[in-house]
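User: Please fill in residues for this 696-position structure.
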C-alpha cells in the first residue's frame, strides 16, 4: 500500500535479490542498482521504480530519485528508475524491492521464492533441470523433514513471458504473414513473366549483338531488385504505421513482451526477406526470358515459349488458391471462436455491474475482528448509495484472473483429496450479479463468522464430485485435518470466472467472514455511469478509512472486452490477411487468365471468324482456367484441414474441422475465382476477329 503524493494506491511490488537486474543485463535509467548489503532487515528500505509507474505517479520527474515513499507504513527511498522497455517475465510490476533475508525465511522450510538464472554457454534448459533435479534429490535425502517431495522445474523465461496461447498465436500470425508474402511474390513473378513476353525480341536482339546471357540476366535481376526495394520501402512505411495502430489496440491482458516496435532487428529482417524474395521470385521469370529470346528471334515473336509460360502461370494460380483457402479458413475459424466466446452464457449478468478492489493494510488491521468490522461497515455504506441497487464483496470477482483453491476430500471417496476453486462471497455478491440458485439457496447473512460453515457449489462440482443421481442438498464436503464436513445448501449455474476461453471448473462458494478475507473486490449493480459509481464508492470507502487504496475499477462489460481483446486482435489480423489473400488470389487468377487469353488471341479470332458465338468463347476461356481454381480449392481444402488442427489449441467452442466455415470459404473462393475468370474471358470474347488475326 502506497500512501502520500496522491490518493492511496495498492502497488505491485516484486522482491528480488540485489543481483537480479545485473543478471537480466539491464540497469536503471536513473539512479543506481541495489547494493549487495541491501538485503538484511533495516537495510532493505530502498526501491527501484518501473518506467510505467514513474510516468503514472510522478509524471517522469527526474527528481523522483531520492524521494521517500511510504509503503505499508514504512519509509522507503527511491534509488533508481528502470528503462521504458524493461520487461520482467510475465509480471507488470510497479516497483522492485530487495528480497530480505531474515532468520525465519532462511530456514529450509521457507519454500517461497522463485529462482531466475542465466544458462552458461553451451548448456540447455534440460541440462540445467537434470543437474538441479540431482541436487534436489540429494537435499531430499539429507533433509527429509523440509525437502521431501520438493523438486525443480526449469523452463525458458521466453515461454513464461509469451504465455501458452500468445506464443502459439504468434506462430500462427507469422505463418499467415509468410503465406501472404508468398502470394504477393507469386503475383509479381507472374507479372514479370507476362511483361517478359513483350521483351522477348529485345532480349533476343541483345543476345544477337553479343551481350552475354549472364549480363542480360543480371540486368533483369537488377530490375527485380529495384521493384522489390520499392515494395519493401512502401511495406516498411505501412508496417510502421500498422505497428503503432496495433500497439495502441493491445489489451492489457497481453503479455508485456508482446510489442510491435519497428527496431533494428525488424529492419534487418525486412531487408533480408526483400532480397531473398527478389532473387527467388525474380530469377525464374528472368531465366525463362533469357532462354526464350533465341526462339523469339527465330520465330519473329510468334512462337515464344507460350506453353511453358502458360504452365508456369497455371501453377502459380493453383498455389495462390491453395494459400487463400488456408488463410480464409484460419480467419473464419478464429472469428467464429470469438463470436462464441462473446455470446456464451456467462452464468451471471454483465451489464451495469461495476467492480473495484480494496486492500486494507495488514499493519492497520492485524486482527480478524477488525477486518470483519471494517468490511461490514464498507458493504453497508456502499449499499446505502443512491446509484447502487445491490452490492457485495468477494476475494476474487469473475474474470479477475485469480485461481484460488482449497483442498477438500472427495464426497464420494473421503480418502482422496482434490483442490477445488474457491470463492469467498457475501450475499450481496450473488444479488449484484443476478445469480439465482438452481437448487436450495445462496450464501446469506446468517452464514458469517460465528455460524456453522455452509457451501454453495456449481453444476460442474455436482457433476464431477457428486454424480447425477446424488441429491446435492443432502450432501456435504469433507475437509482434512479432522475438521467438520461442510453441508451444501445450494447449487448455482456454472459461471465464466477464470477466463472467457476456460471451460467451467468445479467451484464452491463460502462466506468471506468464515475466512476473515482481507483484500476484497466490491461488486455492485449500478444505475449511473461507471465514473459516478467509482466516485461514490471511493467516498463511501474513504469515509470509513481515508488511507484505504481503491483500485482496479472496471465494469464487467469492459472486463469481458479486455479478456477478449487478445483473441480479437489475433483474429482481426488473421481476417485482414485472409481478405488480402482473397484479393491477391483474384488478381492472380485474373492476370493468368488474361495472359492465357492474350496468348490465344489469334485462335479466338479464328474461332469467331468461323462463326463462334461470344458465349462459346467465354465458356472456352473459363473452362481453361476453371481446372486451376478447382485444383487449388481441393489442395487448399486438404492443407486447411491440416492447419486447422494446429489452430485447435487456440480455438474455443469450435471444432478445427468446422463444416460451416470450410464450405462457406470454399463457396466464396469459388465465386471470386469465377469472377476472376469471367472478366478476362468476356473481354477476350469481344475481340475483333480481323484485329486478332492480323496481330503480331
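Assistant: Residues filled in for all 696 positions:
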Amino acid at each position: 500500500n502506497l500512501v502520500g503524493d496522491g490518493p492511496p494506491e495498492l502497488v505491485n511490488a516484486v522482491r528480488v535479490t540485489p543481483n537480479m537486474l545485473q543478471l537480466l543485463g539491464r540497469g536503471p535509467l536513473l539512479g543506481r542498482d541495489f547494493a549487495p548489503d541491501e538485503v538484511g532487515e533495516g537495510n532493505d528500505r530502498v526501491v527501484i521504480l518501473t518506467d510505467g509507474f514513474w510516468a503514472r505517479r510522478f509524471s517522469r520527474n527526474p527528481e523522483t530519485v531520492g524521494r521517500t515513499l511510504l509503503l505499508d507504513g514504512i519509509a522507503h527511498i527511491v534509488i533508481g528508475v528502470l528503462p521504458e522497455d524493461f520487461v520482467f517475465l510475465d509480471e507488470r510490476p510497479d516497483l522492485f524491492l530487495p528480497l530480505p533475508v531474515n532468520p525465519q525465511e532462511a530456514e529450509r522450510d521457507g519454500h517461497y521464492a522463485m529462482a531466475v538464472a542465466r544458462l552458461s554457454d553451451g548448456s540447455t534448459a534440460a541440462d540445467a533441470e537434470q543437474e538441479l533435479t540431482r541436487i534436489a534429490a540429494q537435499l531430499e535425502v539429507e533433509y527429509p523433514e523440509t525437502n521431501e517431495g520438493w523438486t525443480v522445474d526449469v523452463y525458458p523465461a521466453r515461454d513464461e513471458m509469451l504465455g501458452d496461447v500468445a506464443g502459439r498465436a504468434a506462430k500462427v500470425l507469422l505463418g499467415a504473414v509468410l503465406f501472404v508474402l508468398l502470394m504477393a511474390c507469386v503475383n509479381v513473378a507472374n507479372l514479370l513473366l507476362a511483361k517478359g513476353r513483350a521483351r522477348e525480341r529485345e532480349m533476343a536482339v541483345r543476345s544477337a549483338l553479343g551481350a552475354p546471357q549472364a549480363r542480360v540476366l543480371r540486368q533483369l535481376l537488377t530490375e527485380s531488385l529495384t521493384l522489390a526495394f520499392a515494395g519493401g520501402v512502401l511495406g516498411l512505411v505501412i508496417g510502421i504505421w500498422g505497428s503503432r495502430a496495433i500497439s495502441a489496440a493491445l489489451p492489457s491482458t497481453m503479455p508485456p513482451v508482446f510489442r510491435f516496435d519497428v527496431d533494428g532487428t525488424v529492419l534487418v529482417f525486412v531487408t533480408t526477406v526483400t532480397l531473398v524474395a527478389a532473387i527467388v521470385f525474380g530469377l525464374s521469370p528472368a531465366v525463362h526470358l533469357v532462354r526464350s529470346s533465341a526462339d523469339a528471334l527465330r520465330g519473329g515473336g510468334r512462337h515464344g515459349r507460350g506453353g511453358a509460360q502458360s504452365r508456369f502461370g497455371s501453377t502459380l494460380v493453383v498455389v495462390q488458391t491453395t494459400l487463400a483457402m488456408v488463410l480464409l479458413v484460419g480467419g473464419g475459424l478464429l472469428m467464429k471462436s470469438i463470436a462464441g466466446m462473446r455470446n456464451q452464457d456467462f452464468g451471471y449478468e454483465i451489464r451495469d455491474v461495476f467492480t473495484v478492489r480494496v486492500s486494507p493494510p495488514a499493519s492497520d488491521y492485524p486482527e480478524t475482528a477488525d477486518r470483519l468490522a471494517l468490511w461490514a461497515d464498507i458493504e453497508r455504506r456502499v449499499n446505502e448509495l443512491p446509484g447502487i441497487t445491490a452490492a457485495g464483496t468477494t476475494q476474487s470477482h469473475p474474470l479477475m484472473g485469480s485461481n484460488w483453491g482449497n483442498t477438500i476430500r472427495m464426497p464420494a471417496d473421503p480418502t482422496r483429496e482434490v483442490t477445488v476453486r474457491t470463492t469467498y462471497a457475501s450475499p450481496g455478491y450473488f444479488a449484484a450479479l443476478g445469480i439465482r440458485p438452481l437448487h436450495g439457496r445462496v450464501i446469506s447473512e446468517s452464514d458469517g463468522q460465528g455460524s456453522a460453515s455452509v457451501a454453495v457449489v456449481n453444476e460442474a462440482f455436482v457433476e464431477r464430485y457428486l454424480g447425477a443421481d446424488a441429491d446435492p442438498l443432502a450432501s456435504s464436503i469433507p475437509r482434512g485435518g479432522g475438521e467438520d464436513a461442510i453441508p451444501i445448501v445450494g447449487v448455482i449455474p456454472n459461471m465464466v470466472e477464470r477466463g472467457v476461453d476456460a471451460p467451467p471448473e468445479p467451484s464452491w462458494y463460502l462466506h468471506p467472514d468464515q475466512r476473515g478475507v482481507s483484500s476484497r473486490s466490491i461488486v455492485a449493480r449500478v444505475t449511473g455511469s461507471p465514473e459516478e459509481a467509482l466516485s461514490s464508492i471511493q467516498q463511501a470507502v474513504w469515509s470509513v478509512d481515508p488511507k484505504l487504496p481503491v483500485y482496479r475499477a472496471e465494469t464487467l462489460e469492459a472486463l469481458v472486452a479486455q479478456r477478449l481483446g487478445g483473441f480479437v486482435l489475433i483474429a482481426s489480423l488473421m481476417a485482414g490477411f485472409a481478405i488480402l489473400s482473397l484479393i491477391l488470389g483474384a488478381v492472380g487468377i485474373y492476370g493468368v487468365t488474361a495472359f492465357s487469353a492474350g496468348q490465344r488471341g489469334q485462335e479466338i479470332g479464328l474461332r469467331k471468324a468461323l462463326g463462334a458465338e461470344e458465349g462459346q468463347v467465354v465458356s472456352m476461356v473459363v473452362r481453361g482456367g476453371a481446372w486451376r481454381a478447382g485444383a487449388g480449392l481441393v489442395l487448399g481444402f486438404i492443407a486447411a484441414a491440416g492447419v486447422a488442427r494446429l489452430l485447435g489449441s487456440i480455438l474455443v467452442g469450435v471444432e478445427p474441422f468446422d463444416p460451416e466455415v470450410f464450405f462457406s470459404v470454399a463457396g466464396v473462393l469459388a465465386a471470386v475465382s469465377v469472377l476472376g475468370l469471367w472478366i478476362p474471358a468476356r473481354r477476350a470474347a469481344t475481340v475483333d476477329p480481323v484485329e486478332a488475326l492480323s496481330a503480331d
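For context: DSSP finds 19 helices and 18 strands in the chain.
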